[in-house]
Design brief:
With 113 residues, the protein is an alpha+beta fold. The strands form two sheets. Strands 1-2-3 form a three-stranded antiparallel β-sheet, with no helix packed on it. The protein has a domain of 79 residues: 3-Layer(aba) Sandwich (GIY-YIG endonuclease). Helices cover 27% and strands 29% of the residues. It contains three helices and six strands.
């Protein structure tokens, strides 16, 4: 996965502006995502939200997240995009509330329930 121009470097301050109802960084709209990872060793799913999917996948596979450390390697199997962080978190919590591996699998496979 390549570098994401919406991610600041260590020496660069994070300056995000809110313009016209969107977060803007380096003249790009910052979107928020929910993502579903699946462990290639346990087949379990992990549901999360972020504004940088590439970075989160690297962190999960690098053992930097306690919740996913035991399932490495993880693969990205599903995403949804949102304009606001609150929308993404709301959807993340909705999917987590299902507490059903089969229902998440149906979403990932896009099989109508």
């Amino acid at each position: 996965m390549g570098s994401n121009p919406a991610t600041p470097t260590k020496n660069e301050p994070l300056t995000i502006n809110f313009v016209g109802g969107f977060f803007i960084y380096k003249n790009r709209i910052v979107m928020f995502y929910i993502y579903i990872l699946q462990s290639e060793t346990t087949t379990k799913f992990y549901i999360g939200s972020t504004s940088n999917i590439e970075d989160r996948l690297i962190r999960h596979n690098g053992g930097r997240s306690k919740a996913t450390k035991t399932g490495i390697p993880w693969k990205l199997v599903y995403t949804e995009e949102f304009e606001t962080r609150s929308e993404a978190i709301r959807r993340e919590l909705e999917i987590k509330s299902w507490k059903s591996h089969n229902r998440v699998a149906q979403l990932v496979e896009r099989i109508p329930s």
